[in-house]
Amino acid sequence: MQKVVDSNFLQCNELISYLSRSKDNKIVLTDYASMEAYKNNTLISIYKSMTTPCRFPKQVVILKTTGVVCGLSGRASGLRRRLIDERQTRGFSEFCGHLSAAKAGDLFLRNQLLEHGRVATAQMARVLADVPNLPQVFHEMSKSYGGEEISILRHGARLTDTIFQKLINNVLYLAAIFFANHPYVNRRPNFDELINTFIFRFPLCGNLLMLNWVSEGSQMTVRPDKLRNDLVDLNFAVFATFFYGLLSADKKLRGIHKKASDLLAVIAKAWQA
Length: 273
Prior knowledge:
single chain; mainly alpha; 2 domains; four-stranded parallel sheet; 67% helix; 5% strand; globular
């Protein structure tokens, strides 16, 4: 049972309970979970975030970076396995040993952690710089839905054919832009592979986030730092659709993941018909 864990859940007692119940219960760490753990006050935040995972190092799965995953094939066979960074996963126990040594005062290892922290903070700053225009993009997309249609999407009611087609059109529009501009994408997937790509699933979750904003009347007033945090959270929700769920204390994030998973099943069935 491999479940993606968001960065805020790493310090929750519920995570200890989940990992303690069975050795088959595993947590999946994304690159954004790592960046969140490293950024800002690195030598405090990294120890706190990794305390529980380091108690259960054999139950931790490390994923490849989001950028690399965006360029992977959407072929159904071996899909989940392709996302996993086998080398880092095997080496997680050694990493935990390095954390212990750094905490005990090893200056060389502390400097390595601080460098990782600088890289993580810089990456988060780049994400912040990329988001200012996104609320306007979502605002334009929201115009395709009527008020009753937004309510149906938010509350998980049965989709009408019209709503379903509007949602798919919006997702495909964004996905086409991402496929055309992403540096790790060497070819566009065929129709059968599309639904299994990160670049398709990210705008699907993004549209669900947008519908939450619209329902709250706040899509045009989201602060850039809040938007960045929402996009980081979306990263967890998207990766969780490839595994067996999401470990998070964030009710809204869990809701987006659940709706996205349900919609993926609906889309897969519709496209196979």
